[in-house]
Specification:
The chain is an all-alpha fold and 94 residues long. Helix content is 59%, strand content 0%. It has one domain: 434 Repressor (Amino-terminal Domain) (Orthogonal Bundle). The protein has five helices and no strands. Helix 1 crosses helix 3. The model has no long low-confidence stretch (mean pLDDT 86).
């Protein structure tokens, strides 16, 4: 669930994997493993990435966690699979 939350936060902020990895000071591969929810990831790196994309790490109620998980899954289904930056238009009129 946390991996999906991180992925959703990254996509909502239009960060590519590389951009978020650079901000967190980790490799792109580690960020991919974090988003997949692999258990062997360093917890400090996971918390750092979660903080950058604005995720609250602690909830009081399990009901709210279940609702959040369902909401995140629904949102991820609607978003494009990849985030790509738009090519910047060069203003070459002098």
């Amino acid at each position: 669930m946390l991996g999906n939350m991180i992925r959703l936060g990254r996509m909502e902020r239009n960060f590519t994997l590389q951009e978020l990895a650079e901000r967190a000071g980790i490799s792109r591969g580690l960020l991919q493993r974090i988003e997949k929810g692999e258990l062997g990831c360093e917890i400090g790196a996971v918390f750092e990435v979660a903080g950058i994309v604005g995720i609250k790490l602690f909830e009081d109620e399990t009901t709210s966690l279940k609702l959040a998980n369902a909401s995140i899954t629904d949102k991820l289904a609607l978003l494009p699979k990849y985030v790509r930056k738009q090519a910047k238009k060069v203003d070459d009129d002098f």
